[in-house]
Write a structure and sequence with these properties.
219 residues; alpha+beta; 6-stranded antiparallel beta sheet; two-stranded antiparallel ribbon; 7 helices
Length: 219
C-alpha cells in the first residue's frame, strides 16, 4: 500500500567481480508497508516475479512493525486482502533465522566497516548514503560529534553469526573510533533469495499451506 525506493550500493564479492576490478554494484532498495495478513502472498509474488529462487537475483525480507500512525494503519487494513491473519503463522523469536545489522558510520569509513564485518563472517551488504539530523542531545550523551554526512551499511546475517559481526564492528568502527559508528540490529521474519536451502524450505511450506487450504474443514 505504501512504498519507498532509493539507491544503494552492493558490496558482495565474487571471483568474477574481483577479476574485473569491480568491488561494488548499484542496487535499488525498496521499503513497503503492508498488513501481516498479506505477507505470504506478497513474498510469494516477489519471489516468483523476480525469480528470487535463483540465488543472486536479489533478496527480500520482512521486518515486524511495532507501531504506525492511526491513519496509516486504517489505510493498510482497508487495503488488506484478508482482514484477519492466521495467528499460528506469526513468527516467534525462536523461529527467526536472520537479523538485519545496521551500521551508521562517517563517510569514507564504510569500506572499513564492510571489511571488518566480512572478516567476522558477513557475506556482503548494501550501502546507503544518509545525513545526520539535529543530534546535539545525543552528542552530549555519547561525548562525540556526529558528522552530518553518514553512510549506512545494511547486512543481512544468520542469527547465530550476528553477535560476532556486531562485536567486530563495534571494535573496528564503533563510537570510540574515527568512524564514529552506531551499530544496531532488527529482527527479520521471512526471507527470499538468500540461499538455495532457504528457497527449498520456503517452497515446501507454501506447498503444505496450499494443501491445507484445499482440505475440507471438519469444524
Amino acid at each position: 500500500s505504501i512504498s519507498f525506493t532509493f539507491a544503494g550500493t552492493g558490496t558482495a564479492r565474487s571471483a568474477v567481480l574481483d577479476y574485473l576490478g569491480i568491488g561494488e554494484t548499484e542496487k535499488s532498495v525498496a521499503f513497503s508497508l503492508f498488513p501481516e495478513s498479506d505477507e505470504d502472498r506478497i513474498m510469494h509474488a516477489i519471489r516468483e516475479k523476480m525469480s528470487l529462487y535463483l540465488v543472486g537475483r536479489g533478496i527480500s525480507f520482512t521486518i515486524p512493525l511495532t507501531g504506525v500512525s492511526e491513519i496509516v494503519a486504517n489505510g493498510l487494513s482497508s487495503a488488506a486482502t484478508a482482514k484477519l491473519s492466521d495467528r499460528r503463522k506469526i513468527m516467534k523469536s525462536s523461529d527467526r533465522k536472520y537479523d538485519l545489522i545496521i551500521a551508521s558510520v562517517e563517510v569514507n569509513h564504510v569500506d572499513e566497516a564492510m571489511e571488518a564485518a566480512r572478516n567476522a563472517g558477513a557475506a556482503g551488504g548494501t550501502i546507503i548514503r544518509a545525513r545526520s539530523l539535529d543530534n546535539a542531545k545525543a552528542e552530549q550523551f555519547i561525548g562525540i560529534s556526529l558528522m552530518e554526512e553518514r553512510e549506512l551499511l545494511l547486512i543481512l546475517t544468520k542469527k547465530e553469526g550476528k553477535l560476532a559481526i556486531m562485536e567486530t564492528l563495534t571494535e573496528k568502527v564503533g563510537l570510540k573510533t574515527e568512524a564514529g559508528g552506531i551499530i544496531f540490529s532488527l529482527p527479520v521474519d521471512k526471507t527470499a533469495g538468500i540461499s538455495v536451502a532457504d528457497e527449498e524450505e520456503q517452497s515446501g511450506r507454501e506447498g503444505s499451506d496450499q494443501k491445507d487450504a484445499q482440505e475440507p474443514n471438519d469444524n
